[in-house]
Design goal:
By secondary structure, this protein is α/β, with parallel strands linked by helices. The protein has helices spanning 53-70, 84-88, 92-103, 112-124, 162-168, 177-192, 210-222, 238-249, 253-256, 270-284, 296-317, and strands spanning 2-9, 13-21, 27-36, 76-82, 108-109, 132-137, 142-148, 151-158, 205-208, 235-237, 288-291. The strands form two sheets. The protein has a six-stranded mixed beta sheet with strand order 8-7-6-9-11-10, with helices on both faces. Strands 3-2-1-4-5 form a five-stranded mixed beta sheet, with helices on both faces. Strand 6 and strand 7 form a beta hairpin. Helix 6 (177-192) packs across helix 10. The radius of gyration is 19 Å and the shape is globular. The two termini are 23 Å apart. 42% of the residues are buried.
């Protein structure tokens, strides 16, 4: 039996999933932990981003909380990865050294395309996704994958996310019409620069990431689902997506914090977080959106399970 832990240090949140893997290849998730760290908070978008002391302190505290859990587990395999905020940071090396010194944890900073590929593995192994466009909106980046016949035909990571867009275009509280227009135009032009994205016209969207999942949670809450957070495989029509975005836009940060299904700590970044998916849905003329609870951490798990299966097969054949 192996305890396989994956830590995903993103721009907005830090998450850990621990899966218990049996000798026969069967597995079960035993822990899911999340801390909102806002690692990309107050970055200077006119220069090379720098991780701020307060954000680093929150992240270190979160990782110490995680260590208190995984350090007690036997036969532990631990993989920790960092994405957009750390990837872009001018003080990346100093930050990683601090984590190593204070916690004893080695964090791998993965490229955007690798992040997108792990998202793809997490989705295709758990949802029917033969032909679709997959989008993961994080705090500081957005990963998009064109899936054709179940394969990742094209993939990209774009430097837009819930925190970065919200701060760049002042979308934290009351939303001025001109700022919303600037933000959506900015994102639309970015999508236009991705030559292969038009090949996804009329395909359904599969969305993951906290901001996109919030769309599903709001709708499930309004529909009185008993477990409104169980969104894996949940589908919504475009009309429901646009209605939800309209409801969120109509409120200031205080009002958004009161919307059932929308976490209070996302109230000031949810508009920036929803814009990529809303814009892409219109860009592709997609008529529905399916939500995935699984992404990067699950993709790393499936990669590990495949490696274990190949090792076992090699031992048997030898």
């Amino acid at each position: 039996m192996e305890n396989f832990a994956v830590i995903d240090l993103g721009s907005n949140s830090c998450r850990m999933t621990i899966t218990q893997i049996q000798a026969d290849g069967s597995y079960a998730v035993t822990h899911r932990l999340k801390e909102m760290v806002r690692l990309s908070e107050n970055e200077d978008f006119t220069a090379v981003p720098t991780l701020q002391p307060a954000a680093i302190d929150r992240t270190i505290a979160a990782l110490k909380t995680f260590k208190a859990v995984y350090a007690e587990l036997p036969n532990l395999t631990l993989k920790a990865v960092a994405t957009a905020a750390t990837r872009k940071a001018s003080n990346q090396k100093k930050f990683l050294k601090q984590v190593k010194t204070e916690i004893g944890l080695d964090i791998e900073v993965i490229p955007g395309n690798t992040e997108a590929y792990y998202d793809y593995l997490g989705v295709v192994n758990t949802l029917p996704s033969t032909n679709c466009v997959m989008m993961d909106t994080g705090g500081g980046s957005c990963e998009i994958v064109l899936i054709v016949n179940g394969q990742a035909k094209q993939l990209i990571s774009l430097p837009i996310g819930a925190v970065s867009l919200s701060e760049k275009f002042a979308l934290g509280d009351q939303i001025p019409a001109n700022q919303l227009f600037k933000a959506m135009t900015f994102v639309d032009k970015l999508f236009n620069s991705v030559w292969w994205l038009r090949n996804g016209l009329n395909l359904p969207l599969v969305c993951l990431g906290g901001s996109n999942r919030t769309i599903a949670k709001i709708n499930r809450h309004q529909s009185d689902f008993l477990n409104f957070e169980a969104i894996h495989g949940y589908r919504l029509k475009d009309t429901d997506i646009y209605r939800t975005f309209d409801e969120v836009l109509a409120q200031d940060a205080t009002g958004r914090a009161k919307i059932p299904g929308l976490a209070k700590d996302r109230a000031d970044i949810i508009v920036g977080g929803m814009i990529p998916a809303i814009t892409l849905m219109r860009f592709l003329d997609a008529d529905r959106m399916t939500f995935s609870q699984n992404g990067l951490r699950e993709g790393i798990l499936f990669e590990h399970l495949t490696a274990l299966a190949e090792q076992n097969s090699k031992i048997i054949t030898e």
